[in-house]
Amino acid sequence: MTLDVGGFIEHVAPPSPDNDKKDEQIAELQQRVQQLRNENLEERFLWIIGLLTVIDLAIFPHMSTLSAPLVIGALNLIVLAIFAQKCGVDAFMPLIDKISGMWPSSTKGGS
Fold first, then answer.
1. Is residue 44 classed as helix, strand or coil in its secondary structure?
2. Is 33 a member of any domain?
3. Distance from C-alpha of 57 to C-alpha of 84, rounded to nearest angstrom
């Protein structure tokens, strides 16, 4: 024995133009909420970049060697790449690819 709930639902809540309008409004609001979430994540990412920059500018002048800022900068890039992926910032990864493309390759061509 099967139970047909589709007919019952249409009997209790028949489709109407008002329901279609509400469905469209709900879909628009869901899109807007998703857009706001993405904007908030991107803004959070930009604040993190700004904070790291300020911290780096405060610390780097007091370092006596050149290697320490380079290592810290490399670690910053790794952390930012991971955080960009978590925040959904797609523009960051092509930038990293361009930067890493400027470095000479450590492997030599040929066998």
1. helix
2. yes
3. 21
- Residues 83, 45 contacting (CB under 8 angstroms): yes
Written in H, E and C, the secondary structure of 49-84 is HHHHHHHHHHHHHHCCCCHHHHHHHHHHHHHHHHHH
36 lies in a domain?
A: yes
Q: Would you tell me how many other CB atoms lie within 10 Å of the CB of residue 89? A: 19
Tell whether 11 is covered by a domain: no
Q: Is residue 9 domain-resident?
A: no
Global pTM reads 0.62
- Contacts of residue 85, defined as CB under 8 A and 6 or more positions apart, other chains included, come to 93
The predicted-structure confidence for 68-99, as pLDDT tens digits, reads as follows 888 888 888 888 888 888 888 877 778 777 77
Structurally, the chain folds into a number of domains equal to: 1
